[in-house]
Amino acid sequence: MSSKNKSFMADLVSVVEPAADANSRPSRLGVGVLSGRNNRLAELASGSVVNNPQELVDPDRCRIWIRHNRDYAALNETRCSDLIESILAQGKQEVPAIVRRVHNDPNYDYEVICGARRHWCVKWLRANNHPEIRYLVEIRDLTDEQAFRVSDLENRAREDLSDIERARDYLQALGLYYNGRQKDMAKRLNQSEAWLSRYLDLARLPTDILGSFADPFELKISHIGAIKPLLKEDDCRAAVLSEARRIREGRRMGEEDLPATVPDIIRAFGVVANKEAEARKKTALVKAPKKSGSDQIVLRNGSGVPLLRIEGKDRKSISLTLFPKDGGSKEEVETALRDLLDRYWED
């Protein structure tokens, strides 16, 4: 530290700590305390230590950040029971929530960046015979992108935040702060792109898939590796979505013998996807001999029954002949037609 800075620190310390009597000999403890204050002030001045104030506040004066990664509406006494018991045992909230000040809003003083669950618990306790408990917050000055990273870092190790909540937060942040550049986002989070991709894939699951699970919060990124391949092919995807809707509707109607756990539901998806894939394999393209100078292609099912005939007329068009009475099913013909669209129709 330069002599000028030392002088500044000495003057600052002199304001905090009255000067010792010149005739009195300072004790060893006094020197240690003064040295400790001097070192602390030096750290604050250099920026190596950040002094973030903490306060006990009324939770009703705190609003939840609109981009918070917690599904606040999904919180309830059951999901928060462990934290409620901990606060009651300690008589207070031990770990402060991270907030930032709110301006130009007469209804709120702070915005909760991290600590929505703590906020819910304190509000619940105050409404249930414990009005003396207040909300402990740590006040910081953060941009939205900084707030996102602080919230993610604090909640990443918490088991009470589900993977689906975190995944939705990442997908939203990708567009808001990183212009859709997954590589940049992974770098800012100090994680691999593969790790981030699994979360983004989870967040992008269709609503029909999520609705088939009794509790979507039980879905993990470890499950995405089994679900994603089932949605790759259009026909398989349609079959899986149909099965998901069947499970959801069946649960709503109180049907029994429905797959209940996450692994069971994923296995049910795999069964219908495999059936659809096998059905596609059974439809074979068979080249027929040339007739009247034109190429003909007859599509048959696995048993050799003709489904339809393709006749090439010119370079811009083809004509089809259906065989509705030769024994092929309507589903097999629909599959064959979809194959034709994929083959001949340019995107």
UniProtKB/TrEMBL annotation:
It comes from the Bacteria. It holds the Pfam family SoPB_HTH. SMART domains: ParB (SM00470). GO terms for cellular component: chromosome. GO terms for biological process: chromosome segregation. Residues 55-156 form the ParB-like N-terminal domain. One of its GO terms (molecular function) is DNA binding. SUPFAM superfamilies: KorB DNA-binding domain-like (SSF109709), ParB/Sulfiredoxin (SSF110849). Belongs to the ParB family. This is ParB family chromosome partitioning protein. It comes from Novosphingobium sediminicola.
